Amino acid sequence: MKLLVLHGINLNMFGQRDPGHYGTATLADIDAALQALATELGAEVECFQSNHEGVMCERIHQAHRDGVRGVVINAGAWTHTSVAIRDALAILRCPIVEVHMSNVHAREPFRHHSYIADIARGQICGFGVDSYLLGLRAAASAAQADIKK
Ligand code: DQA
User: What's the pTM value of the predicted model, to 2 decimals?
Assistant: First the structure.
């Protein structure tokens, strides 16, 4: 089962960026933890990061062509701004899990709205790296359930 983890704009800077909100783990640390969990779950995971909205949209289109079974996405600031990322995700038929390292609802009001939340199966935020790991478990389990339908 193929799952895709998408990291949006500025998330390549995890580890060097606002440790009060995002901790000290780097994106490479997060991807390594996701790969370890994927092995445990018997899933195949690809992790992808871009700072370019169009490139991210094209990666999502490719996921549609590839028949990816589940997507975990931390869209970073695009969560709160991008109709384009939302529209690309809406093309997918597989479960989407929105994740954030920080609890966006406990932060500035502009972070409370997500363009992704209502087309996602669910949202996990506030647990640091565990948000991603919980998100991957949720995506794997939702994808399994969809396969059985
Ligand atoms: C974030 C939260 C967003 O509001 C912010 O723009 C980010 C990171 C998170 O993981 O907590 O870049 O998505």
Answer: 0.97
